[in-house]
Each structure stands twice: as C-alpha cells, then as structure tokens.
Fold each of these.
Amino acid sequence: QVQLTESGGGSVQAGGSLRLSCAASGYSATMAWFRQAPGKEREGVAVVTRDRRAAYLDSVRGRFTISLDNADNKVYLQMNNLTPEDTAVYYCAATRSTPLAAAGSVLQALHTIAFYNYWGQGTQVTVSS
C-alpha cells in the first residue's frame, strides 16, 4: 500500500502561481495529478513516469509543469498563469504500473482513472478573477 500526501494548495488571483507537492510512502512507477471541480467529473491534468515521459491536459499545457523526484518518491505540479477555470480540488495519484512504450500510451494513462491504485486526500486550489 502506498500512501500519498499532498500539500501546496491555496487561493491566488488570476495570473498567479502555485506549486503542489505529493509525497509517496513507497515506490511508484507513474504519478499524476487529477482535479475535480464542483459538479464536474474528475479529469487528468498531468502525468509523469519514472523514465521521464509526461503528458498534459490540453488546457494546462504550457502553463503547468509536472516533475518527479525519483529518489524521494515525490511529484510536483508547478502551476503558472492560473485562471478561475483551474479552481478545483487537486488529487495526486500513483501506480506501480508503467504505460506501454507505444506512442500515446502516456496520454491514455492521463485519461484513465482506473490506471491508478493510490490516491491522495486532495488539496483545494482556488483562483479568483
């Protein structure tokens, strides 16, 4: 069992930045950030594998950066130029599985909630206009 502990959420104005952190208690081959806004389904925001493959939700590409510290089993999400549409509860997710080497597999992992075995408790991000 891998426990995930998130930190770094908060409230910012549009255009601001936040950095989310997630510490895993054990090995994870793939880690990701999901978010869920009120009344909406949970969606994948960014995913990264230990071999440094990454994928992003279209609406955050170029603004968000996911990074993985393999030694410490930590994943980070740097969020810049935030907009009110980014307001949501952000969840860290992890799995010991690795997406296939085939093209598109990491992106598919981003959109497949069932791929992840472990979830954090969530951290609120609120962006005001």
Note: The mean pLDDT is 94.
Amino acid sequence: QFVESGGGSVQPGGTLTPSCAASGFNFGDYSLAWYRQTSGNERELVAGITSTGDIKYYESAKGRFTISGDNAKKMVYLQMNNLEPTDTAVYLCNMGPPSATWGQGAQVNVSW
C-alpha cells in the first residue's frame, strides 16, 4: 500500500516535497519510484531509487528533483525545486517496476 501526501499549489519556481508512506511489503528489499500522471496521459516515470541506494532520474526530473528514502520509516520523498507549469500532475509512488496497487497520489499544481 502507498499513501502519498505533500502536494499543493505553487507558483513557477516554487518547491514542493511530496512524501509516500509504504506498507505491506519488506520496504528494504525493493526499488521504489515516483511516477506522475496528467489527465488523459500515461503514467510517466520521474525518479527511482534502488534498495542499495542507487538513483536514476528521468528527463523531466533531471537537475531539479531529488528522490530519497528512509528505510526505518518506510518513506520515500521527492523534493521538487524550480517547478514549472508542465510539472502539474498527480504524483504517485510505487515499486519500480510498479505493483498493481496504486495510491491516490499527491496533486501538484504549478501556475501563476
């Protein structure tokens, strides 16, 4: 199970840090990832972190976003800096590759 929080509305250039609480599996054994989805579009992979701490950012996130995890708290975070209107989406976390169970996500709105 994944429960996202920490979305919100910001102006371009702002910062948000969604959080994800994971449960129901052995957190330290899996890669975790953040995805995002806009209306009518496929989910897009944003950033991933392996069980050993290796990190990969996909094109939309490079240079602006930072993924991190806390094994003790079973939490995954996505610090998003210098947000742009095109970052407006629902942000979701899951395993990488994803399991069939998705949370409701954290809505992020970036606009003037």
Note: The beta strands are 2-5, 8-10, 19-22, 32-37, 44-49, 55-57, 65-70, 75-80, 89-95, 106-110.
Amino acid sequence: VQFVESGGGLVHSGGSLSLACVASGFTFTNYYMSWYRQNPGKARELVATIGSAGGVTTYAESVKGRFTISRDNLKNTTYLQMTKLKPEDTAVYYCNRYRGSGYWGQGTQVTVSS
C-alpha cells in the first residue's frame, strides 16, 4: 500500500491550492478515501472523505464550503481543491483510505501566510 501526495506550497491567505494523491497496492475502487492534516505536536485531523464511486462527500466543519474532495478511479487518484485558504489551514496534508490502512505517505506541506 502506498500513497504519494503532491501539490502543496506557500500561498497567501485567501488563495487556492489543489492537492493530488496517487494510491497503489490495493483495489482503489473498493474504498472510501480521505484527506487528513496534521501539525507538529497535534493529532491528525480528518478533513474530507469521498465515497468509493465519488457520490458521497463529507467535510470537517472548519473546511466546509471552501474545500472540495474528488477522485478519478481510472487514475487511482484523490484530489483536494482548497479555496479561501486561511492561516489555520497550514499543515501537512495526507491522504489515506477512510479509517486508515496502516500506511502513510510523506504528505505535502501547505503553508498559508497571513
């Protein structure tokens, strides 16, 4: 099982970023997929989840209306479109199967300056 996240960077408050995560080592279409984020010394936070066919999405209250999760089952890829970014969105972002897999990728750093 492997996850490779990309797309992070430095952006000003109010800006946008798009993250991507390529998954491998399991049958992608069998699983709900999620994006998580984490800051040093803090617990990992569930940000967004998408159903296996993409028809169901859920979001943390803190990102609802600003972030959009999507997936491409032909490419084994999960996306996170982030808009209206705030400094408190600064974190390392990870993707994984919903409820985890026992494996984590390296994540991608998102930094939002005020």
Note: The mean pLDDT is 97.
